[in-house]
Specification:
alpha/beta, Rossmann fold, Arc Repressor Mutant, subunit A, 2 domains, 5-stranded parallel beta sheet, 5 strands, globular
Length: about 230
């Protein structure tokens, strides 16, 4: 029964470094013999993989994967927000070379099921993945203790109410795109974009597009410079 359950696991590794993907695949192969593992190296390929494998058991996500055109808006923590809204039943574990405490707390608040530093020993990576696949979460102990009191928790909760399309619209607003440009990228009407913007402002409790962009940039910046989010 246990062996049968193991073979059912399907894990998607999303990282733009082929050598790390291969190393992680080998690591998981030992921990999860018989598991199906899909490797992708860009945001576009990740979205394609999820479209084909909507019942995947786990996504291991590198926050700094490249993306093109509309998919470029889904890099970083915005990508995590999108995955959590689009695929709420698939746990996402962030895998990063950074171990910035503030960024790890933001991953926690935005719904990640775990955070694995690429510098972790192999046995700890295996333990973390197994814990998440068993329905748990895996974060550094100090982050789990501090997360509940993080000042970004309320904003994270508001962002978590956005639909997948609203996450994309908000991210494109942050890139400085106009409504007509967003409409073109998403293949929708300007009226639809305006409706999304209005809903975003209401959900975030702000009065303007600028305030919405400032809000998301406070939490979604992953620049690795210190403990505070980067400048807008």
């Amino acid at each position: 029964m246990g062996a049968k359950a193991m073979t059912a696991h399907h894990v998607i590794i999303a990282d733009d470094h082929p050598l790390f993907r291969d190393a992680l695949k080998q690591t998981l192969g030992v921990a999860l013999p018989g598991a199906s593992i899909t490797e992708v190296g860009s945001v576009e390929k990740l979205l394609e993989a999820l479209a084909k494998n909507a019942t995947a058991d786990l996504v291991l996500l590198d926050l700094k994967m490249p993306g093109e055109k509309g998919a470029a808006s889904l890099s970083g923590l915005t990508g995590l927000m999108y995955l959590r809204s689009q695929h709420p039943d698939i746990p996402v574990v962030v895998v990063s070379a950074s171990d910035n405490p503030s960024m790890i707390r933001r991953c926690h608040n935005l719904g990640a099921s775990g955070f694995i530093s690429k510098s972790l020993p192999v046995d700890q990576i295996r333990s973390a993945v197994k814990m998440v696949l068993d329905g748990g979460v895996w974060f550094p102990d100090e982050v789990q203790r501090d997360a509940a009191g993080d000042e970004m928790a309320d904003l994270s909760a508001r962002l978590a109410t956005l639909t997948p399309q609203q996450v994309r619209v908000l991210s494109m607003l942050g890139q400085g795109l106009l409504n007509k440009q967003i409409a073109f990228e998403l293949s929708v009407s300007e009226a639809t974009v305006k409706a999304h913007v209005s809903a975003i402002l209401q959900k975030l409790g702000v009065d303007s597009r600028t305030q919405a962009v400032i809000a998301v940039n406070r939490i979604a910046t992953v620049d690795g410079h210190g403990d505070e989010p980067g400048e807008v």
